[in-house]
Amino acid sequence: MFYILVFTVFVGNIYAVERVCPLGWMSHKNHCYMIVSKPTQSWFNANIQCENQNSTLAKLDSRSELEWIYQRLLARNEPVHFWIGGNRLKRFEEWRWVSDGQRIEFFDFYKTQPNQNTSLCIALWHPFKYDWADEPCTSSYGYICKI
Ligand SMILES: [Ca+2]
Prior knowledge:
By secondary structure, the protein is α+β, with helices and mostly antiparallel strands. The protein has a single domain (about 1-145), classed as Mannose-Binding Protein A, subunit A (Mannose-Binding Protein A, Chain A, Roll), CATH 3.10.100.10. It contains three helices and eight strands, in the order αββαβαβββββ. Strands 1, 2, 3, 4, 5, 6, 7 and 8 form an eight-stranded mixed sheet that branches. It is globular and about 40 Å long.
């Protein structure tokens, strides 16, 4: 019985292992995330802020990861939009992640988005409960970095 208990605790801990993140970052499934709501930044400057901390604007490429982030943002209860790493800066209509240049495979745009052919960056839009919007990259918003 003792051995079964020890084994259970041991295995439980393996599944509970989370990456150790820098101070001020949140750990989730072997990645670290930093949510910054102020000062707000253009998409470009937000990515520079992330790069200064050895990260980039976040690549969010699964439903479970997005739901985790949305819960964090909703809990903050701030009327702020947040930049993530998705953009179509290099080739219009082809959305890619800044972290690795990969094409975006999984989208979570709000039903009315994307709707502006001059909006080349992706923001998590507060009134849409953080579903995505295409926005001008020069707009000043909060941002999410990911390692
Ligand atoms: Ca839009």
